[in-house]
Amino acid sequence: MRTPQQLYAQERMIYQPELLTCPHCGDPLVMCTYLAWDKTVQMLDRVLSVASRPGRCPHATCAGSRNAPALCRGAAHCPPGLQLWL
Q1: Is the alpha carbon torsion for 44, 46, 49, 55 positive or negative?
Q2: Contact assessment for residue 40 and residue 57, using Cβ atoms and an 8 Å cutoff
Q3: What is the pTM of this model?
Q4: Residue 13 and residue 38: Cα distance in Å, rounded?
Q5: Which band of pLDDT confidence, cut at 50, 70 and 90, is reported for residue 85?
Q6: What is the distance between the alpha carbons of residues 20 and 35, in angstroms, rounded to a whole number?
Q7: Among candidate residues 49, 45, 35, 36, the one with its CA nearest the CA of residue 77
Q8: Within a domain: residue 71?
Q9: How many Cα neighbours within 13 Å face the side chain of 57?
Q10: What residue numbers bound the domain in which 29 lies?
């Protein structure tokens, strides 16, 4: 059995939230200092590191400050110019 090969990312993509304003109060979201998720995407010609940085409402009394909106664009990552044929 072969030893697994290490994957070293050649490019890093960090996605920002699709929503720029809080859906509850309408104020602009503040970017968090942590990443919601980080994954390695292996392609035929390169290896990517894809991550997403969530945003939250700056008001502590707003319902949007406790739970950050979900980030969908980066989770279903398909780099520009790449098409998937089934």
Answers
A1: negative
A2: no
A3: 0.64
A4: 10
A5: very low
A6: 17
A7: 49
A8: no
A9: 17
A10: 11-57
